[in-house]
Amino acid sequence: MLKELMKKKDASLPCEENTLSNYFAKDHPDEAKWADCVHCGMCLEACPTYLETGQEQHSPRGRVHLIKSVAEGKLNVNEAFADPVFQCLDCRACTTACPADVDVGGLIEEARGQVRQAMPLRGWKGAAGSFFLKRLFPHPNRMQTVSGLLKLYQQSGLQKVMRRSGAMKVMPDHLAGMEAIMPEMKASVQKTYKNVDLIPAKGAVKARVAMLTGCIMDVMFGDINESTIHVLTYNGNEVTLPKQQTCCGALHVHAGDRDTGRKLAKQNIEAFEDAGKVIVNAAGCGCALKEYPELFKDDPEWRDRAEKFAAKVEDVSKYLCDTGYVKPESRIHKSITYHDACHLAHGQGVRHEPRQMLQDIPGVEYKEMKNADTCCGSAGIYNLTNPEMAGAVLDRKMADVPEDVEMISMGNPGCMLQMAMGVQKYGRRSEIVHTIQLLDWAYQKDEQAAGKKG
Amino acid sequence: MKRKKQNKVDPHIRSLTKIVGESEILYKPEDLISYDCDGFTVHKALPKAVVFPKNTEEVAALVQYCHMNHLPFLARGAGTGLSGGAIPLNEEIIISLVKMKQLLCVDYENRQAVVQPGYVNLKLTNSISDKGYYYAPDPSSQYVCTIGGNVAENAGGAHCLKYGVTTNHILGLEVVLPHGEVIEIGGEGAPDSPGYDLMGLLTGSEGTLGIVTKITVRILKSPQGKKTVLAYFDDVEEGSRAVSDIIAAGIVPAALEMMDKTAIEGVEAGTFPVGHPPDIEAFLLIEVDGIMAGLEEQIEQILEVCESWNVREVKVAKSEEERSRWWANRKTGFGAMGAISPDYLVQDGVIPRSRLPEVLKEIEKISRESGLRIANIFHAGDGNLHPLILFDSRVPGETEKALQAGTACLKACADVGGSITGEHGVGIEKKEEMRFIFTEEEIEAQLDIRDVFNPYDLLNQGKLFPKPSRCMDVKKIVKDTVAVQS
């Protein structure tokens, strides 16, 4: 049966000269990427979906094998191919485990692009996808006014969870007070600094940096953006928030919509053209920005611009560790563990810096989490598209979270929502916080203390 | 994503589904592609189905069904084997044991643990290390390979020089025989049991005599101290002479590994580079362990030997972190070849240590003549060579060339009184080469043993032994290893 499949190519697929067998010519997976894989299997135990299913096609090397099989004409871009390719969390743990550094994540994203070319999403899934990904996320003004996302947020029970895990207790008094009367949606920094071109540094100016405010981040976690700005300026950085910036496009690329991904990438590349550094506080966005060159393989001019842009992108924790930051003096008496966001640890190799920051805060009792760099199941919108697998992955994660910690810190909004669900599901009391918030709160306490003295 | 149900399902598939449940079987051709090979990628073929039993009873029921219906079948663990032991040659039913992955019990008092076959090798050490114990056999794939697979292949590893291979650490087995009967052998920690050593026979039988469903293994107290040294040589021959002399001096290092220039190029291009000097010809990775007192002395003795062979530089690991980095660099060596070559074929020859220099020269000659690069990573201490033949399967004819070069390497090992496999097994890959070390009668005698357990040859058919001239009508030698699907 398969022999027939192997011989007969799907007539509906275009077969141009430069196509890789059963792939569309446009944007096909990069042969050089899978040529690195020698099928050794060292990735297996790193893969959350393999651990869950035990099935090869849901393992990194299995997926690479399938991607290669399409190029060899043994398989078509059909549902049997789409299933394993979309079950992948795109967590990149395999890339860390791989002895040959095979870019499985990149291959998966390219393969998803092929799936969406061959099988465009139709019906309600297509409509919902296009609503969120095309009409909402890329438009900051709509993000702020449209309540669609908020409703989803509330209906899914996430809001309750986040309220419960509210991190008010360690905040300086005035902020905690404000928090109590603040509506759930935090103030977007794009709104707050609408008429400000440059947010000044405190004290001597060390550098000027531009910040990606993100789409979801700025609407749901405006306070984290505010914390990031505060920590940056506190450490002598002038901060700009380029107005033309847009959604990073990570969710689009993950979903196989590479055309929209490219459109957004171009807009961001232009928006940050004058910036020396692009600082990001969301791991998923940072990773996507760094991978913009992947989107322009066939476009030398934009590839060049994308490479220059990518070189400027830095996660806020890495930037602060590289350029130095003031160690806070005020104490935050909390036991804290750290969860590695996949796109920070595996995607950008940032592991040590956030831990360093936490441990530099006096009073923090740091506890390392077992398997800290294992995916929590958030994976962009994976927890919405593949809730069952995401739930299973979350269960595994929660088993590794020390039960007695007061806070779980991380550097990615998607993980924060997912981990908050985990905390609620297991009746834990831990608060979910962004690493940069803790440093910010310590600084604010320092400022309060200095104010009282002065 | 749900797919449309096929109306015509093979009746065998229906029966197998009844045993394991609908979610635990794969049979659609597209779903089977990922099971067309294991870590040996030169030969690919599809199974009829893959089933995922959850316990011994299901394994036994599956085996009984296959036996009654004359369906060929085989067992598979993590599929990291390097000789093709888990590749279906006859549209087998693959019985995947990855869902039987429990650590059933640990008995510290009697220093033993019971695991299911799908339990991952390194997990055992990780689960008992806080109590100061570990499981000794440490194949390079230990991060992912299963102990069941280790038993089938009698897996070795870097530290087997001092501690022995898998068979030295197995105390008991629960086995499903090829007709579905479940037996238990061994179990108690007795040094010897009356009757034939069935456990010795089963261990390393490459899945041709039965399917192991429960394993009692020996666990060891972690050594009090470890010292690890990297010794860089400007000349491979001098490095190999040092290996011989270390052993001859009566030192038994826990591990004594060697890598040559091409291998070093691979690992340095991979994910776990150490920063080895780029211009050296070879390095030795030497580890001694045991009671703290005396380790220093052993290291000094080793260094003396290395110096007598003009070692360029010697480094002692300063921390556990540095030591793990060196080992990660070594243990991911095979996979790292992907960074410098699209495909590789690893051989697994064994030679007397004293013959290392001449065999390495011979391998170099094979490389020159075939025009293929060959990297050498090996357990130098026990003379177990792993020539890695680098090739590109997309270039017509290169796969065949690589296979021929592999055979030539094994011939070179056999010619100096060595063997064709040290730890990877024979599988599909080396069955013809069995003739280098066994006569027709010796092969025949072993097939007679197989027939006692596996009379209809339904279990892992076509592995381990060459297609013999056992009946006149099957006299054609099928060169199926060369019949690469393209």
How would you describe this structure to a colleague?
The complex is a heterodimer of chains A (454) and B (486). By secondary structure, chain A is of the alpha/beta class. Chain A folds into three domains: 2-118, Fumarate Reductase Iron-sulfur Protein, Chain B, domain 2 (Orthogonal Bundle); 170-322, no CATH class; 328-453, Rossmann fold. Chain A is built from 27 helices and eight strands. Chain A has a four-stranded parallel beta sheet. The longest helix of chain A has 19 residues, at 435-453. Chain B folds into four domains: 11-96, 2-Layer Sandwich (Uridine Diphospho-n-acetylenolpyruvylglucosamine Reductase, domain 2), CATH 3.30.43.10; 103-221, Uridine Diphospho-n-acetylenolpyruvylglucosamine Reductase, domain 3 (2-Layer Sandwich); 231-340, Alpha-Beta Plaits (2-Layer Sandwich); 345-486, Alpha-Beta Plaits. In chain B, the strands form four sheets. Chain B has a seven-stranded antiparallel beta sheet with strand order 15-12-14-13-17-18-16, sandwiched between helices. In chain B, a hairpin with a 4-residue loop joins strand 5 (103-107) and strand 6. Residues 470-486 of chain B have low confidence and may be disordered. Chain A binds chain B through residues 1-2, 5, 35-45, 54-57, 59, 62, 65-66, 69, 74-75, 78-83, 86, 96-102, and chain B through 1, 3, 26, 28-35, 37-39, 41, 46, 50, 52, 78-80, 96, 98-99, 101, 118, 120, 141, 143-145, 267, 270-272, 332-339, 341-344.
